[in-house]
Amino acid sequence: MSRSEEWRYMDTLRPPVYVCLRRKPSISDGVYHPMAIDGRIDKEDWEHAPWSERFVDIEGAPRKPTEYPLTRFKMMYDDEHLYIGAELVESKIWGTLHTKNSTMYHENDFEVFLNPDGSRHHYYELELNCLNTIWELLLYKPYKDGYSIENPYNLVGLRTAVYVDGITNSPQTICNKWCVEMAFPLGELVQFDSLRKRTALAGDVWRVNFSRVQYELDVVVDKESSELCYEKVPNKPEANIVWAPTGVIDIHRPEKWGFMFFSSQQELPGGESELASTMAEYLEQQIAMERILDTIYYDQREFYKLHEAFASSFAQLYPALEAFAHSDLLKKYDLSMPVITSMSERAKTHGDRHRSYVPNLDPDDDGDGGDGDPNVLLSPRAKEIQRLEASGLFKNYMASVQSTTQQWNVTHDGRLWKSVN
Protein backbone atom coordinates (compact mmCIF):
# COMPACT_ATOMS: atom_id res chain seq x y z
CA MET A 1 0.00 0.00 0.00
CA SER A 2 1.07 3.61 -0.42
CA ARG A 3 2.33 5.55 2.54
CA SER A 4 0.51 8.56 3.89
CA GLU A 5 1.89 11.49 1.90
CA GLU A 6 0.82 13.82 4.69
CA TRP A 7 2.88 11.90 7.24
CA ARG A 8 5.78 11.41 4.83
CA TYR A 9 6.44 15.16 5.06
CA MET A 10 5.41 15.58 8.71
CA ASP A 11 7.89 12.88 9.68
CA THR A 12 10.78 14.95 8.34
CA LEU A 13 10.15 17.64 10.97
CA ARG A 14 11.94 17.01 14.26
CA PRO A 15 10.12 18.30 17.36
CA PRO A 16 12.24 20.79 19.33
CA VAL A 17 13.18 20.24 22.96
CA TYR A 18 13.12 22.94 25.64
CA VAL A 19 14.97 22.72 28.95
CA CYS A 20 12.69 24.13 31.65
CA LEU A 21 14.92 25.32 34.50
CA ARG A 22 13.92 25.78 38.09
CA ARG A 23 13.06 29.28 39.19
CA LYS A 24 15.71 30.87 41.38
CA PRO A 25 14.77 31.67 44.98
CA SER A 26 15.32 35.08 46.53
CA ILE A 27 19.00 36.02 46.84
CA SER A 28 18.37 37.68 50.20
CA ASP A 29 16.83 34.76 52.09
CA GLY A 30 16.84 31.76 49.72
CA VAL A 31 13.03 31.54 49.81
CA TYR A 32 10.54 31.43 46.94
CA HIS A 33 8.38 34.50 47.30
CA PRO A 34 5.20 34.96 45.23
CA MET A 35 6.20 36.19 41.80
CA ALA A 36 4.57 39.29 40.35
CA ILE A 37 2.77 38.39 37.11
CA ASP A 38 2.74 41.69 35.24
CA GLY A 39 3.67 40.80 31.68
CA ARG A 40 7.27 41.97 32.12
CA ILE A 41 9.64 39.18 31.20
CA ASP A 42 12.63 41.52 31.29
CA LYS A 43 12.64 41.40 35.09
CA GLU A 44 15.29 39.64 37.16
CA ASP A 45 13.17 36.53 37.79
CA TRP A 46 13.46 35.58 34.13
CA GLU A 47 17.13 36.37 33.46
CA HIS A 48 18.42 32.81 33.81
CA ALA A 49 15.66 31.17 31.73
CA PRO A 50 16.70 30.50 28.12
CA TRP A 51 14.78 31.80 25.14
CA SER A 52 13.24 29.28 22.78
CA GLU A 53 14.06 29.14 19.11
CA ARG A 54 12.39 31.71 16.90
CA PHE A 55 8.88 30.64 15.86
CA VAL A 56 8.34 29.47 12.26
CA ASP A 57 5.41 28.82 9.95
CA ILE A 58 3.20 25.95 11.06
CA GLU A 59 3.94 24.05 7.84
CA GLY A 60 7.66 24.08 8.60
CA ALA A 61 10.60 25.88 7.02
CA PRO A 62 11.19 23.30 4.24
CA ARG A 63 7.72 23.93 2.84
CA LYS A 64 7.19 27.55 3.87
CA PRO A 65 10.41 29.40 4.83
CA THR A 66 8.61 32.66 5.59
CA GLU A 67 10.29 34.83 8.23
CA TYR A 68 7.76 36.44 10.53
CA PRO A 69 8.15 39.08 13.26
CA LEU A 70 10.08 37.58 16.15
CA THR A 71 8.10 35.33 18.47
CA ARG A 72 9.74 33.34 21.27
CA PHE A 73 9.09 32.11 24.81
CA LYS A 74 10.71 31.26 28.12
CA MET A 75 9.64 28.77 30.78
CA MET A 76 10.64 27.96 34.33
CA TYR A 77 9.04 26.28 37.34
CA ASP A 78 9.12 25.99 41.10
CA ASP A 79 7.32 23.69 43.52
CA GLU A 80 3.98 25.39 42.95
CA HIS A 81 3.85 26.86 39.45
CA LEU A 82 4.86 26.54 35.83
CA TYR A 83 5.73 29.98 34.46
CA ILE A 84 5.54 30.89 30.79
CA GLY A 85 6.59 34.20 29.26
CA ALA A 86 6.45 35.11 25.58
CA GLU A 87 7.60 38.02 23.43
CA LEU A 88 5.73 38.95 20.24
CA VAL A 89 7.37 41.67 18.16
CA GLU A 90 4.67 43.71 16.41
CA SER A 91 4.30 47.25 15.08
CA LYS A 92 0.49 47.11 14.91
CA ILE A 93 -0.95 45.88 18.20
CA TRP A 94 -4.65 45.20 17.80
CA GLY A 95 -7.38 43.51 19.78
CA THR A 96 -11.10 43.99 20.39
CA LEU A 97 -12.27 41.00 22.43
CA HIS A 98 -12.85 41.77 26.12
CA THR A 99 -15.19 38.92 27.12
CA LYS A 100 -13.57 35.89 28.75
CA ASN A 101 -13.78 32.68 26.70
CA SER A 102 -14.52 34.50 23.46
CA THR A 103 -13.37 32.71 20.31
CA MET A 104 -9.93 34.24 20.29
CA TYR A 105 -8.30 33.05 17.06
CA HIS A 106 -10.44 35.35 14.90
CA GLU A 107 -8.01 38.06 16.08
CA ASN A 108 -4.28 38.16 16.75
CA ASP A 109 -3.52 35.96 19.73
CA PHE A 110 -0.98 33.78 21.54
CA GLU A 111 -1.82 30.14 22.28
CA VAL A 112 -0.47 27.56 24.72
CA PHE A 113 -0.98 23.78 24.47
CA LEU A 114 -0.06 21.45 27.34
CA ASN A 115 -0.13 17.63 27.20
CA PRO A 116 1.68 16.54 30.37
CA ASP A 117 1.31 12.78 29.90
CA GLY A 118 2.10 12.87 26.18
CA SER A 119 -1.00 10.82 25.35
CA ARG A 120 -2.13 13.24 22.59
CA HIS A 121 -5.55 13.12 24.28
CA HIS A 122 -6.99 15.11 27.19
CA TYR A 123 -4.86 18.20 26.66
CA TYR A 124 -5.25 21.81 27.71
CA GLU A 125 -5.38 24.89 25.48
CA LEU A 126 -5.11 28.58 26.45
CA GLU A 127 -5.51 31.49 24.06
CA LEU A 128 -5.11 35.15 24.96
CA ASN A 129 -4.92 38.48 23.17
CA CYS A 130 -3.12 41.77 23.75
CA LEU A 131 -5.97 42.89 26.06
CA ASN A 132 -5.28 39.93 28.37
CA THR A 133 -8.61 38.35 27.47
CA ILE A 134 -8.32 34.57 27.82
CA TRP A 135 -10.05 31.51 26.41
CA GLU A 136 -9.42 28.08 27.95
CA LEU A 137 -10.43 24.71 26.55
CA LEU A 138 -9.99 21.02 27.26
CA LEU A 139 -9.67 18.71 24.27
CA TYR A 140 -10.34 15.06 24.97
CA LYS A 141 -9.32 14.19 21.41
CA PRO A 142 -7.81 16.16 18.52
CA TYR A 143 -10.10 17.20 15.68
CA LYS A 144 -8.75 14.57 13.27
CA ASP A 145 -9.61 11.78 15.72
CA GLY A 146 -13.30 12.57 16.24
CA TYR A 147 -12.70 15.47 18.57
CA SER A 148 -14.41 16.00 21.90
CA ILE A 149 -14.10 19.40 23.59
CA GLU A 150 -15.05 20.98 26.88
CA ASN A 151 -15.51 24.68 26.15
CA PRO A 152 -14.81 26.63 28.23
CA TYR A 153 -12.61 24.83 30.72
CA ASN A 154 -11.17 27.34 33.15
CA LEU A 155 -8.40 26.70 35.66
CA VAL A 156 -9.06 28.26 39.05
CA GLY A 157 -5.57 29.46 39.90
CA LEU A 158 -4.28 30.58 36.50
CA ARG A 159 -2.74 34.07 36.44
CA THR A 160 -2.01 35.94 33.21
CA ALA A 161 -0.81 39.42 32.31
CA VAL A 162 0.09 41.35 29.16
CA TYR A 163 2.62 44.15 28.72
CA VAL A 164 2.35 46.34 25.61
CA ASP A 165 5.41 48.26 24.43
CA GLY A 166 3.39 50.84 22.53
CA ILE A 167 -0.31 51.72 22.42
CA THR A 168 -2.98 49.16 21.65
CA ASN A 169 -5.36 49.92 18.76
CA SER A 170 -3.52 53.11 17.80
CA PRO A 171 -2.64 53.32 14.08
CA GLN A 172 -0.82 56.59 14.80
CA THR A 173 1.65 54.69 17.03
CA ILE A 174 4.41 52.42 15.79
CA CYS A 175 4.60 49.79 18.52
CA ASN A 176 7.51 47.50 19.35
CA LYS A 177 6.05 44.36 20.89
CA TRP A 178 3.64 42.83 23.34
CA CYS A 179 4.57 40.30 25.98
CA VAL A 180 2.54 37.74 27.89
CA GLU A 181 3.28 36.19 31.25
CA MET A 182 1.46 33.24 32.81
CA ALA A 183 1.61 31.24 36.03
CA PHE A 184 -0.05 27.81 35.96
CA PRO A 185 -0.64 26.04 39.29
CA LEU A 186 1.11 22.69 38.92
CA GLY A 187 -1.45 21.10 41.22
CA GLU A 188 -4.23 21.91 38.78
CA LEU A 189 -2.28 20.55 35.82
CA VAL A 190 -2.12 17.10 37.45
CA GLN A 191 -5.59 16.40 36.02
CA PHE A 192 -4.03 16.28 32.54
CA ASP A 193 -1.38 13.72 33.53
CA SER A 194 -2.91 10.25 33.64
CA LEU A 195 0.59 8.73 33.47
CA ARG A 196 2.08 10.08 36.70
CA LYS A 197 -0.95 11.47 38.57
CA ARG A 198 1.28 13.90 40.50
CA THR A 199 2.78 17.35 40.15
CA ALA A 200 5.76 17.79 37.85
CA LEU A 201 9.21 16.81 39.13
CA ALA A 202 12.71 17.18 37.74
CA GLY A 203 13.24 14.61 35.00
CA ASP A 204 9.66 14.68 33.72
CA VAL A 205 9.00 15.26 30.04
CA TRP A 206 5.82 16.91 28.71
CA ARG A 207 4.59 17.56 25.18
CA VAL A 208 3.82 21.24 24.60
CA ASN A 209 3.41 23.74 21.80
CA PHE A 210 2.87 27.45 21.30
CA SER A 211 1.19 29.29 18.45
CA ARG A 212 0.81 32.89 17.36
CA VAL A 213 -2.15 33.70 15.13
CA GLN A 214 -1.43 36.83 13.11
CA TYR A 215 -3.64 38.71 10.65
CA GLU A 216 -2.58 41.35 8.15
CA LEU A 217 -4.18 44.68 9.04
CA ASP A 218 -5.38 47.72 7.12
CA VAL A 219 -5.77 51.21 8.59
CA VAL A 220 -9.31 52.50 7.97
CA VAL A 221 -11.56 55.28 9.21
CA ASP A 222 -14.18 54.17 11.72
CA LYS A 223 -17.61 55.13 10.37
CA GLU A 224 -19.01 56.05 13.78
CA SER A 225 -16.11 57.88 15.41
CA SER A 226 -14.31 59.03 12.24
CA GLU A 227 -11.07 57.95 13.92
CA LEU A 228 -8.38 55.75 12.45
CA CYS A 229 -8.58 52.08 13.42
CA TYR A 230 -7.32 48.66 12.37
CA GLU A 231 -9.27 46.19 10.28
CA LYS A 232 -8.34 42.76 8.98
CA VAL A 233 -7.43 42.69 5.30
CA PRO A 234 -10.42 41.00 3.60
CA ASN A 235 -9.99 37.47 2.27
CA LYS A 236 -6.46 37.25 3.64
CA PRO A 237 -5.84 34.10 5.70
CA GLU A 238 -4.10 34.33 9.02
CA ALA A 239 -0.49 33.35 9.54
CA ASN A 240 0.04 30.47 11.97
CA ILE A 241 3.43 30.96 13.61
CA VAL A 242 4.53 28.19 15.96
CA TRP A 243 7.38 26.82 18.04
CA ALA A 244 7.04 23.23 16.84
CA PRO A 245 5.77 23.05 13.24
CA THR A 246 3.24 20.30 12.59
CA GLY A 247 3.73 20.23 8.82
CA VAL A 248 0.07 20.97 8.12
CA ILE A 249 -2.21 23.91 8.88
CA ASP A 250 -3.52 22.24 12.01
CA ILE A 251 -2.00 22.91 15.42
CA HIS A 252 -3.93 19.95 16.83
CA ARG A 253 -1.34 17.38 15.81
CA PRO A 254 0.16 16.66 19.26
CA GLU A 255 2.44 14.02 17.76
CA LYS A 256 4.51 16.89 16.33
CA TRP A 257 4.54 19.12 19.40
CA GLY A 258 7.80 19.87 21.16
CA PHE A 259 9.22 18.23 24.27
CA MET A 260 9.63 20.12 27.53
CA PHE A 261 12.19 18.66 29.95
CA PHE A 262 11.94 19.62 33.61
CA SER A 263 15.47 20.14 34.91
CA SER A 264 16.58 20.20 38.54
CA GLN A 265 19.10 22.91 37.62
CA GLN A 266 18.87 26.70 37.72
CA GLU A 267 21.42 27.32 34.96
CA LEU A 268 21.28 26.16 31.35
CA PRO A 269 24.60 24.23 31.16
CA GLY A 270 23.49 21.98 34.01
CA GLY A 271 20.04 21.59 32.47
CA GLU A 272 21.47 20.64 29.09
CA SER A 273 23.71 18.07 30.76
CA GLU A 274 20.69 16.49 32.45
CA LEU A 275 18.80 16.46 29.16
CA ALA A 276 21.70 14.72 27.42
CA SER A 277 21.66 11.99 30.07
CA THR A 278 17.89 11.60 29.71
CA MET A 279 18.15 11.37 25.93
CA ALA A 280 20.78 8.65 26.23
CA GLU A 281 18.89 6.79 28.96
CA TYR A 282 15.49 6.53 27.26
CA LEU A 283 14.15 9.63 25.48
CA GLU A 284 16.01 9.19 22.19
CA GLN A 285 14.71 5.63 21.95
CA GLN A 286 11.21 6.76 22.96
CA ILE A 287 11.16 9.36 20.18
CA ALA A 288 12.15 6.67 17.67
CA MET A 289 9.40 4.37 18.94
CA GLU A 290 6.86 7.18 18.64
CA ARG A 291 7.92 7.79 15.02
CA ILE A 292 7.39 4.11 14.27
CA LEU A 293 3.93 4.09 15.84
CA ASP A 294 2.96 7.36 14.17
CA THR A 295 3.95 5.93 10.80
CA ILE A 296 1.70 2.93 11.43
CA TYR A 297 -1.11 5.22 12.61
CA TYR A 298 -1.02 7.40 9.49
CA ASP A 299 -0.62 4.45 7.14
CA GLN A 300 -3.58 2.76 8.82
CA ARG A 301 -5.62 5.88 8.05
CA GLU A 302 -4.73 5.43 4.38
CA PHE A 303 -5.61 1.73 4.60
CA TYR A 304 -8.98 2.64 6.12
CA LYS A 305 -9.78 4.97 3.21
CA LEU A 306 -9.43 2.01 0.84
CA HIS A 307 -11.05 -0.74 2.91
CA GLU A 308 -13.28 1.05 5.44
CA ALA A 309 -11.47 -0.97 8.08
CA PHE A 310 -7.98 -1.27 9.54
CA ALA A 311 -5.27 -3.81 8.75
CA SER A 312 -5.20 -6.63 11.29
CA SER A 313 -1.46 -7.23 11.22
CA PHE A 314 1.83 -5.56 10.47
CA ALA A 315 2.31 -7.95 7.54
CA GLN A 316 -1.07 -7.00 6.08
CA LEU A 317 -0.30 -3.29 6.34
CA TYR A 318 3.22 -3.76 4.94
CA PRO A 319 3.31 -6.84 2.68
CA ALA A 320 7.09 -6.57 2.45
CA LEU A 321 9.25 -5.36 5.31
CA GLU A 322 11.07 -2.97 3.00
CA ALA A 323 7.74 -1.15 2.53
CA PHE A 324 7.90 0.02 6.14
CA ALA A 325 9.62 3.39 6.30
CA HIS A 326 11.42 2.87 9.61
CA SER A 327 13.00 -0.55 9.41
CA ASP A 328 16.25 1.29 10.09
CA LEU A 329 14.96 2.49 13.48
CA LEU A 330 13.90 -1.03 14.43
CA LYS A 331 17.47 -2.19 13.83
CA LYS A 332 19.23 0.85 15.32
CA TYR A 333 17.40 0.65 18.65
CA ASP A 334 17.02 -3.16 18.70
CA LEU A 335 13.23 -2.95 18.78
CA SER A 336 10.75 -5.75 18.37
CA MET A 337 8.69 -6.01 15.21
CA PRO A 338 5.57 -3.85 15.76
CA VAL A 339 2.42 -5.79 16.60
CA ILE A 340 -1.14 -4.83 15.63
CA THR A 341 -4.00 -6.26 17.68
CA SER A 342 -7.74 -5.67 17.84
CA MET A 343 -9.06 -3.56 20.70
CA SER A 344 -12.10 -5.85 20.78
CA GLU A 345 -10.58 -9.29 20.35
CA ARG A 346 -11.59 -10.30 23.89
CA ALA A 347 -15.23 -9.74 22.93
CA LYS A 348 -15.34 -11.55 19.60
CA THR A 349 -18.22 -13.85 20.52
CA HIS A 350 -21.12 -13.39 22.86
CA GLY A 351 -20.49 -16.86 24.23
CA ASP A 352 -17.40 -15.50 25.98
CA ARG A 353 -18.75 -13.17 28.63
CA HIS A 354 -15.29 -12.09 29.76
CA ARG A 355 -15.34 -8.40 28.82
CA SER A 356 -12.57 -5.87 28.56
CA TYR A 357 -12.89 -2.11 28.29
CA VAL A 358 -10.31 0.57 27.56
CA PRO A 359 -10.36 2.22 29.99
CA ASN A 360 -11.80 -0.25 32.50
CA LEU A 361 -15.23 1.21 33.19
CA ASP A 362 -16.36 -1.25 35.84
CA PRO A 363 -14.01 -3.57 37.75
CA ASP A 364 -16.87 -6.03 38.19
CA ASP A 365 -17.11 -6.46 34.43
CA ASP A 366 -13.69 -8.11 34.23
CA GLY A 367 -13.94 -11.82 34.91
CA ASP A 368 -17.66 -12.34 35.49
CA GLY A 369 -17.24 -15.89 34.25
CA GLY A 370 -19.79 -18.16 32.62
CA ASP A 371 -20.34 -19.17 29.04
CA GLY A 372 -23.12 -16.68 28.33
CA ASP A 373 -26.22 -17.36 26.29
CA PRO A 374 -25.40 -17.94 22.62
CA ASN A 375 -29.02 -17.23 21.72
CA VAL A 376 -28.80 -13.61 22.87
CA LEU A 377 -28.61 -11.32 19.85
CA LEU A 378 -25.40 -9.41 19.20
CA SER A 379 -25.58 -5.65 18.86
CA PRO A 380 -25.15 -4.21 15.35
CA ARG A 381 -21.71 -2.94 16.35
CA ALA A 382 -20.65 -6.37 17.66
CA LYS A 383 -21.90 -7.99 14.46
CA GLU A 384 -19.88 -5.53 12.40
CA ILE A 385 -16.76 -6.27 14.44
CA GLN A 386 -17.30 -10.01 13.98
CA ARG A 387 -17.82 -9.60 10.24
CA LEU A 388 -14.67 -7.54 9.78
CA GLU A 389 -12.47 -9.76 11.91
CA ALA A 390 -13.75 -12.85 10.11
CA SER A 391 -12.54 -11.24 6.88
CA GLY A 392 -9.15 -10.39 8.38
CA LEU A 393 -9.79 -6.71 9.11
CA PHE A 394 -10.22 -4.66 12.28
CA LYS A 395 -12.83 -2.12 13.30
CA ASN A 396 -10.25 -0.66 15.69
CA TYR A 397 -6.72 -1.55 16.66
CA MET A 398 -3.76 -1.07 18.96
CA ALA A 399 -0.21 -1.00 17.61
CA SER A 400 2.72 -1.70 19.93
CA VAL A 401 6.50 -1.60 19.70
CA GLN A 402 8.86 -2.80 22.40
CA SER A 403 12.49 -2.60 23.47
CA THR A 404 14.19 -4.31 26.39
CA THR A 405 13.31 -1.36 28.63
CA GLN A 406 10.03 0.14 27.40
CA GLN A 407 6.89 -0.52 25.38
CA TRP A 408 4.76 2.12 23.66
CA ASN A 409 1.30 1.75 22.17
CA VAL A 410 -1.01 3.76 19.92
CA THR A 411 -4.68 3.22 19.08
CA HIS A 412 -6.72 3.95 15.97
CA ASP A 413 -7.84 7.28 17.48
CA GLY A 414 -4.28 8.45 18.12
CA ARG A 415 -4.00 7.82 21.86
CA LEU A 416 -0.40 7.06 22.86
CA TRP A 417 0.79 5.55 26.12
CA LYS A 418 3.63 3.66 27.71
CA SER A 419 2.93 0.24 29.17
CA VAL A 420 3.74 0.06 32.86
CA ASN A 421 5.06 -3.26 34.12
UniProtKB/TrEMBL annotation:
For biological process, the GO terms are: carbohydrate catabolic process
Q: Check the record and name the PANTHER family matching this protein.
A: CARBOHYDRATE-BINDING DOMAIN-CONTAINING PROTEIN, SIMILAR TO POLYHYDROXYALKANOATE DEPOLYMERASE
Q: Which SUPFAM superfamilies match?
A: CBD9-like
Q: Name one Pfam family in it.
A: CBM9_1
> Boundaries of each Carbohydrate-binding domain copy?
37-186
Region described as Disordered: spans on this chain: 345-377
What is the name of this protein? Carbohydrate-binding domain-containing protein
Q: Species name for this entry?
A: Globisporangium ultimum (strain ATCC 200006 / CBS 805.95 / DAOM BR144) (Pythium ultimum)
UniProt biased composition (Acidic residues): 362-371
An example of a GO molecular function for this protein is: hydrolase activity, hydrolyzing O-glycosyl compounds
Q: The organism sits in which domain of life?
A: Eukaryota
